[in-house]
What does this fold into?
Amino acid sequence: MENLNLQTIRLNIRHLELSDLSDFHIYRSNPEVTKYQGFDIMRIEQAEEFIKENSTKYFGKAGEWVQYGIENSETRQLIGDCAIKLDQYDKRIAEIGITISHIEQKKGYAKEVLIGILTFLFDTKEIHRVVEIVDAENIPSINLLRSTGFKQEGHFIENIFFKGKWGSEFQYAMLKREWDARAR
It folds into this structure.
């Protein structure tokens, strides 16, 4: 298990801290941010508990989601969070997710985080395959995945009862060899 601390051009991807609570709660309590997410709007108490719980988790435990803060390196403000989970049965496969604050969207941060995580997983950890499941209506996320070289592998139709209705999802994935070819 290891403490994750990744640097990108503008961002620091690191463990969530209680000092992040206010910034974290601002976007995690926004219905536009949670619209396509697997979590609902958080009350401040839930946000605090979530941060405390994730501060004791470390990268490398199979089957466990670990949530990390996305910090703007210049302002030191939390602008979002991301998650990594190694497959329960094969630690060479990872699933990821990214949430960016509504205040910070459309600035290229999600792509920067995604590339940072992929660089870590593929180049440092020699992960074989990275997967992301995305709501079929979440066009910005779908476009982000496609723009970084992810391929759609599945379309699950009304596979999840989600926020009071049946939702559909796409599965996107990238293999290490595809990442390596992209880098060339």
Observations:
- Residues 109-124 form the longest helix (16 residues).
- The first strand starts at residue 5 and ends at 7.
